[in-house]
């Protein structure tokens, strides 16, 4: 049961709230449509339900608010009208990354691509997908974890009439298993055709909550679509006959050759045209929105154009598609009852074989049945939905034996195998990092710039050997390697907020300490790798140009290496934490630059001047406090490490990381969606 109680958005600039005290419910086993004109607040309603929008009210998902659901990604599948992900990622890599976030096997991505009919686009970039393919991909992402509840914002946008029928069959198949489905639309006919219940809103307020049959009877009414070269003459004829028979008939002139006749039927209109010698090119019974034509009068009257040519062509295309489906339906033979579970396996009474060989509604391998999607695949539900002829019949199937229930009566357990364990956040982070060419491009640019800078510093001789190899002139606040490490760290969380399909706040991406540890570990490893490559590249470049003269062996190479590693790791961690706190890649990179620009001068002012008490002997005192006795040779290493941390840059990095970690604890770990 999905219950929304008192949803009210936060008003801005003394304007009325977009959503005002809205209460409704979406029942399990039922497809519910949220109907409203553009700008009526439909998307805001979904964002309030997902706790992505500030406001009042509460939404219960099977009796619990979203922030109290242990695994939100497995409870709610979401399709919002946003960018599905980084345009540079491939379709398959994006779904595999979401599989890792949801804790399901990576093979689930290929199964869902087959389900939504875009398996042939698995290697295409997200930025190259059309609007319709984006909707299919977003639907596959919403169904990855086999959630109980689906919240879909305009799921049929950009789909053809045949694809819309397939989509509604998929949603009904999901609802037939006890799930709740809520989708938004601004088309009354689409709501009546695809939903079992229609919730109508206007200006963010509830207008009506009706069954689809009651909605169609009160909001929609039948009409006769007529196309004739003598539209004005036919309208006059129908009006005269209606007045003579005292019948309430309304005639709407949609264009120069098209009429919509309300209150009559094809037989009456055709007979009237035949008796009066009016040529008619087309007669068709359709369902029209009663709100478009106004109140019908007692007598027929011609009305000026009320609909566009484009809308008429869309209705004509829908009619042609419906006629084609009805012809195809007569040629469909009896097929064996089949079942495809959400793991992509097809089961019949005689045995079991892969879904790629047995399609839904087909008794033979490789033969697509009537319930197959546009791509020849089956909706992801343990039910069969026949929609080839435009009619829908959903057959319930009992849960798979051996699968445990989730403890709630009437709801079968998900057949998707869960992949849990401490490595789950690490799997997600590795998929996120290496799903694009960003780390490789960043490393290449950093190495090239560092090598060029090191050669210039060696030529001028104005920098010490350590700064020369690090390519860190005095004019730059940080070396290129540190800036690259900070950029990769800032992308760790910043990318999730830039592309809401990842939706860390929505619960798709885990927000607990395991994810933070994975991001810090992966980013620090990348930073150290870039740092090592930079040192090798700078040494080779300087040696190639000037020989071995500028590359004398350093006396304190251990302290220099530790300082270099600490600088890169600190910058990477600062980028990770800052992007998580400020929810922006740019803000994360700005926080990295703020360390040498703003924090270091402040630290220098604090540390300026002599100390009242000397800190000598700290190493020997630390040896006494430690339970383990390190060898005397390690005293110099510990002293070098402490000396590095007391430098202005080291102190500034440590202070910045402490502040950012505390800020992340308050803003991230205490967020309402908990993982």
Count of individual beta strands: 19
Q: What's the average pLDDT? A: 75
Q: Give the CA-based shape.
A: elongated
Question: Tally the helices: what do you get?
Answer: 22
Uncertain segments are: 292-413, 503-508, 671-675
Main-sheet strand order equals 6-7-8-3-9-10
Class per helix and strand makeup = alpha+beta
First-last Cα distance: 22 Å
Largest sheet: 6 strands, mixed
Based on CA atoms alone, the radius of gyration comes out at 33 Å
Percentage of residues in strands? 5-15%
- The share of residues in helices is 40-55%
Descriptors for this entry?
675 residues, alpha+beta, six-stranded mixed β-sheet, 22 helices, elongated
Lay out the secondary structure.
Layout: E1 2-9, E2 22-26, E3 30-35, H1 42-49, E4 55-61, E5 64-65, H2 72-75, E6 76-79, H3 91-102, H4 107-115, H5 131-142, E7 149-153, H6 161-175, E8 180-185, H7 188-194, E9 197-202, E10 205-211, H8 212-219, E11 220-227, H9 231-245, E12 250-253, E13 258-262, H10 266-275, E14 282-289, H11 290-293, H12 309-329, E15 339-340, E16 345-348, E17 351-354, E18 384-385, E19 394-395, H13 424-434, H14 438-460, H15 465-470, H16 480-498, H17 513-546, H18 557-582, H19 585-607, H20 618-625, H21 634-645, H22 648-667
